[in-house]
Amino acid sequence: MSTHVPSKVNPIYIAQVEARKSTVAANAQARFAAIKVALDPLTPDFDKRLAVIATMPGSRKKKMAAFLELVSDMRKVASPFIACKKGCSACCYQRVVISTLEADLISAKTGRMAKIVITGAPVKPEEEFGKSTPCSFLDSHGECSIYEYRPYMCRNFVTLDVDNLLCQPENIELAAEKHPATTGIPLLTPGPLGVLYGQITKGDALNDIRAIFP
């Protein structure tokens, strides 16, 4: 006979997440529709930039820098319709998988040495991250100290909910507990950006940013 283990998460938070379950899909659909309307007139220009970057000569670092700039420009279009705002650092406690190419860019800009990561090295599962795992580059004020050079995963993390409730570390804890209140974060899909990122980083080792910059 199984014994129910009470959750370690604040019951007030659990109640908030359970209440959100019924509206999260509608919230995401409405915001996605608004973003599409805003993005459609700009799509031809963004498509051209994607094509230019895909065939860009020179170093991979140059290509990655141009790509990251494009990601930011595209996601700025979404900014009026998403919960992600200055002052929120909830996603900075989640797993942030980056490539060794992005690590090289960060090292070049900050002077901080990256740890060598072997291709295929295990990546910690998402449920092992939370309140005790702030990003290596989250400063004492709760702000990203490498915001200008932040990796693709950070730039492309766009939540389509009304606020950052589901991004909180407590939601990760609920997932780890396999609690029925757990609710996934509705995110904007990577689309062509994800495809190009895969092409640029092909063959690179990937791991959480904390493993590369302890």
What proportion strand? under 5%
Structural class estimated from helices and strands: mainly alpha
Number of strands: 2
Net shape: globular
Strand/helix succession: HHHHEHHHHEH
Radius of gyration: 18 Å
Instruction: Please report the distance between the alpha carbons of the first and last residues.
Output: 43 Å
The residue ranges in which pLDDT falls below 50 over 5 or more consecutive positions are: none
| Number of contiguous helices | 9
The largest β sheet comes out as:
2 strands, antiparallel
Please list the strands of the largest sheet in the order they lie side by side. Answer: 1-2
Q: What value does the average pLDDT take?
A: 94
Indicate the percent of residues in helices.
40-55%
3D structure, described in words:
The protein is mainly α and 214 residues long. It has 9 helices and 2 strands. A two-stranded antiparallel sheet has the order 1-2. α3 packs antiparallel against α4 (60-78) and α4 packs across α5. It is globular. 30% of the residues are buried.
Quick tags:
214 residues; mainly alpha; 9 helices; 2 strands
Write the layout of secondary structure elements.
Elements: H1 11-20, H2 24-39, H3 43-54, H4 60-78, E1 97-99, H5 100-110, H6 152-155, H7 169-176, H8 192-200, E2 206-208, H9 209-212
Antiparallel strand pairs: 1-2
Summarize the entry for a quick read.
It contains nine helices and two strands.
